[in-house]
Amino acid sequence: MNTVRTADEETVGAQKVAVVTGAGSGIGRAVALELLAAGWSVTLAGRRPGTLEETAALAPAGGSALPVRADVSHPEEVAALFSAVRERFGRLDLLFNNAGTFGPGGVPVEELPYEAWRHVVDTNLNGAFLCAQAAYRQMKEQRPQGGRIINNGSISAHTPRPHSVAYTATKHALTGLTKSLSLDGRPYGIAVGQIDIGNAATDMTAGMQTGALQANGETAPEPVMDVADVARTVRHMAELPLEANVQFATVMATAMPYVGRG
Questions:
Q1: Which residue in 168, 75, 204, 68 sits closest to 127, CA to CA?
Q2: Choosing from 114, 136, 167, 188, which is the catalytic residue?
Q3: CA-to-CA distance for 137 and 135, rounded, in angstroms?
Q4: Is 136 noted as a catalytic residue in this protein?
């Protein structure tokens, strides 16, 4: 087990501490494992303890992974998550704000239940805000001061898919959250950026290779990319010195229908 340092004992070049939300599967798991392999201490946050334990079990020998069950849409659970980080590691260098949900897929806007809308908003937007707020407070108060927040946006932060009103609205809002946090964090050495991801191969995107609804109403298969390429991009953003920031990055399957007419 790693030696726990207090915030005052932490020095430049010491082991870095990260929180990854939605770490039980998909992009969150890939990013957590990439950071662990690079020597980071990583708190794995998510709603399902079993999948968090599975991620922790995949960590390289000697890796310091702390699974914490947390629903990011609940303020009290977010507070408990970041308290656990302070107690275990003493500081926080990175939040990867990744937890999210598509909500019910393929539902026309006029048929979308309000409860489904609220669930997507509570997870994707309110959850991202609550985690960013808790991370911001800790980064502002700790010594040395500062840290980095990376929000998982989406290609949908720029352009929607059909029947994705809740998901797309929250991802557009996340861009505003990123910009505001980036501005407000400047005096305290808190760098905030966003990664917009398109067609990474995960369980959530498995259907894209067989057929996804297009803007013209047709269904067509779409190319995907290895989720490890996303993880490497996040790690690059995370390991920059705080004097440098990737404000927005887009990483996507090269031939996916996004640029131009597809």
A1: 75
A2: 167
A3: 5
A4: no
